[in-house]
């Protein structure tokens, strides 16, 4: 009589749900400034270029803190590093509401400094997502997993843009920061109680761990007894080898271009609706949710398509590149908005563009596929450094375009052109997508 093997648990999907929830709050907190932006611009008398610099403040520190954040993830693990990240960015978001008690230069300076602090605190978040996906998901499920947590950026707008627009309209712009920051503090403690590495999770059985491990998951990556406790990473050798790899560099540059679309949506899009399309801030909050719904659906669909291509026998390169190239091509449709007048048509075209952007936003799946096991946090941090440099350049470039031309027409062309560069990166530069291995060892005994 044979003993029946226990069925594998599915704890990894619960972990993914937590990642999705945290990332939703992450992006909602980033977008608070965009929803409050028109009112802040009016009250503080900011020019388009000044507003561009305020919008970009988050990304300056977010980019600069990426490599330290990646080092913290690799040294201390995702659980504790990510907890402090969530807690601190939420506290700083709440403090944004106190800017209303200040005036003039003091208000603008405080606003800028708090956005810098939020950016620094959020730095470990997406590299942490990538590490956790690498630890918990086999290759054939990783595209879907990465697409789901990445699509939270759209879901954040779907869920919170109407709520935040209503809060500004009803209680004033300060209320947005108090409510969203408080929600994040609660989420930080939920994270601490629910997230573990595969081998440490009390509800994951041996069958699930064996299944994901056999499928390519790095099940030891987040374990308490990992070798990082007795070794340290040679940071500069690691960075040099990562940046010296053509495949990874192509992925990193591609992410910069993809995030140009993301940051247009997070910063200037509500202003575009109010200023160029003459909508009220309340209406803009609701209307902005429609392209976000399309982006969310496209984001999930892109991951599902990619994983199904793998399961049907296609190579990892074909499975990841096909949605990215097709999605980015569809994103360029936003330029059509320069040639139509009806609001419903503008929103339809923007929805189509962000549907494409969602399909193509598989960069984090590629990072999880390619990051070396010794330095998953550092590879994700470099990827995010490149990607979020767009958070610095995009708001400022669009601010200058707007101040120079008085219209968003050039801005939409600028954003669409970045989608084309993404396509060129993946077709001409990236080559075969595979896990990177260091030529020279980067781990040193302590």
TrEMBL record:
Domain of life: Bacteria
Lipid bilayer topology: Multi-pass membrane protein
Keyword Heme among UniProt keywords: no
Residue ranges of every copy of the Major facilitator superfamily (MFS) profile domain listed in the record: 15-434
Compartments where found: Cell membrane
Transmembrane parts of this sequence: 54-73, 80-99, 147-169, 175-192, 249-269, 281-304, 347-368, 380-402, 408-429
Keywords: Cell membrane, Membrane, Transmembrane, Transmembrane helix
PANTHER family reported for this sequence: FI19708P1-RELATED, SOLUTE CARRIER FAMILY 17
This protein's name: MFS transporter
Species whose genome carries this gene: Duganella dendranthematis
